[in-house]
Amino acid sequence: MYSEKHLYSKEHEWIEVDGDTAKIGITHHAQEQLGDIVYVDLPELDSEFVAGDEFGSVESVKAVAEVFMPVDGEILAVNEQLEETPETVNQDPHAGGWLVKVKLTNTAQLEGLMSHADYAKFVSEESN
Amino acid sequence: MAETDQTLKKTPLAEAHQQLGGKMVPFGGWFMPVQYSGLVDEHTTVRTKVGLFDVSHMGEVRIQGEDALAFTNYLTVNNVTKLEDDQAHYSAFCTPEGTVVDDLLVYREAADNFLLVINAANIEKDVAWIRKNQGNFKVTITNESDDTAQIAIQGPLAQGILQRVCDADLSEMKYYWFKRCKVGPVSALVSRTGYTGEDGFECYVAAADAVAVWRLLLETGAEEGIKPAGLGARDSLRLEARMHLYGNDMDETTTVLEAGLGWIVKTKNTDDFIGKAAIVAQKKAGVERKLVGFRLLGRGIARPDCAVIEDGIAVGRVTSGTQGPTLKQSIGMAYVPTHLSRPGTTLQIQIRNKLVDAEVVKGPFYKRA
C-alpha cells in the first residue's frame, strides 16, 4: 500500500525524490481519513517554503486538511489536473494524485523522514 | 478515537452499522455512522435512487392529557390548532426573547396526544424546558427517546420499496402526514417527512424492533440499489435543500426571525406562546441580521465560523458550508447584516488567508424536479 519509492512524514505526506527535485502528495491513509475529496488548494509557482509550512489544503465534503511541507523547497509545478478532478487524490494518492513538485533546497532533511515500513507501523500505532 | 466507545450513547443499530462497514464517529454525544460507501456516493444514491438512514439518536417526547393541545401550542411557535389527527408540522421552541431553544416536528396523534421529535443533542435540555414550562397545564410528559428508534428511507424510490412491506397506502399519504401501521411485522408510525430534499418517509418503531426493520428495508430495496447512508450525506443533503441544522444555523443566541424561520411562527389569531411578545416586537422593528444562503463565486469551501467581511471588518459568520455533491457548487449559509441580505448581493468571505466572493441566493439551493 505504501510505496517503497517514497519517504513519509508524520503529517501523512509522502515525498518521491528524483535528484534535487521531488513530488509531494498525501498518503493513502490521509485520503481515507478525509473521505471524498472535492477541492484541492495548491500554492503559486516559485513560492518558497520551509519544512513544516502549510502549502495548501485538501478538502472533502465534510472536512478540510492542511498539507505541510515535509522538507524545504521551492514550487516547480502543481498538479493542475486536480482542479477538475480532485477525486484523483482518493483514487490514486501515491501517483496520479500528487500535489506539488518542488526543488529541494536542503536534502539533508530527507533523513528525518520515515521509510514505507516505518510509516505503515506509525499509522497502525496512531489508529490504535 | 479509542475513547469513543465507552462514553457515547448508541442507537439499537450501532452493531448493524459496524457490520455493514459504517465508519463510526462521535456526534452530539452519540456513536453514529458518518459514512459507509462514501459520502458522495451515498448522497447521490439518495438523490437518484434511495438511501436508508438511522436517525434513532433523535429524541421523542410525548405530551398527553386534556391540555395536550393547549400546552403544545404554548410551547411551540407554529399553530398547533391547525393540525388534524395524523398530521405533523415543523416548528420551534423559543425562549421568551424569541431565540431558538430547538427546532422540532410536532405530530398530532389525537387532540390529547402529541409526539414532539427533537434534536439528539438537545434531549435533556428540551425535556427540562418542557417540564419547566408545564405550569398548570394538565398533561403528562414522557421522554420516549430511549425506547424509540427512527429509520428514514429517502429518495425517489422510497415509496415503492416501503410500500412492499407497509400496510398503509403510501400513495395516499401527503407530505407531512403520517399513519400508524405495520412495517413487516412491526408496529410503526410512518410519516412522509425527511431531511434530504427528496421524497421519503421516516419510520418510528420500538427500539427492540429497529434491527428487524433496518434489515427488512435493506433486503426489500436490494434490487433497486438501496444503500445505508451516514450523517455526512445527511448533512450535505439537508444543506443543498437549505434545511437548518440546530447548533450551526440557529441556537439560543439567534432569534427565530433572524434564522429565517418566520414562516413557522404564527402570531396572528393565535393563543399566547413562549416568545410571542418578543417575536411580534421584532417583526415590527425588523431584524439587524439575517441568515442567508450563498454560493461561492471563487474557489474553495466556506466552513462554519468563516467570517463575512465588509470593508475589512468582520460583520457576519458562516454557519454551514460545503461543496454540494449534486449541485457541484460550493454553498453555505451565513448570518449577515440585513443590508447585505438581499439576493444578488456579493459577500466577501474569509477562507483561511483568502477573501473569496460569494453571492446571496434565495430559496433552496437544490429543489427536486
Automatic annotation (TrEMBL), chain B:
Ranges where the GCVT N-terminal domain occurs: 14-268
Matches recorded under SUPFAM superfamilies: Aminomethyltransferase beta-barrel domain (SSF101790), Folate-binding domain (SSF103025)
One of the record's GO cellular component terms: cytosol
Catalytic activity: N(6)-[(R)-S(8)-aminomethyldihydrolipoyl]-L-lysyl-[protein] + (6S)-5,6,7,8-tetrahydrofolate = N(6)-[(R)-dihydrolipoyl]-L-lysyl-[protein] + (6R)-5,10-methylene-5,6,7,8-tetrahydrofolate + NH4(+)
UniProt entry tagged with the keyword Transferase: yes
Organism superkingdom: Bacteria
Family label: Belongs to the GcvT family.
Subunit structure, as described in the record: The glycine cleavage system is composed of four proteins: P, T, L and H.
Residues that hold substrate according to the record: 202
Listed name of the protein: Aminomethyltransferase
Entry-linked Pfam families: GCV_T, GCV_T_C
InterPro entries the record matches: GcvT (IPR006223), GcvT/YgfZ/DmdA (IPR028896), GcvT/YgfZ_C (IPR029043), GcvT_bac (IPR022903), GcvT_C (IPR013977), GCVT_N (IPR006222), TrmE/GcvT-like (IPR027266)
Its EC number(s): 2.1.2.10
Function statement: The glycine cleavage system catalyzes the degradation of glycine.
Gene Ontology MF term list: aminomethyltransferase activity; transaminase activity
Major enzyme class: transferase
GO annotation terms (biological process): glycine decarboxylation via glycine cleavage system
Domain Aminomethyltransferase C-terminal: 289-367
Entry keyword set: Aminotransferase, Transferase
Transmembrane segments: none
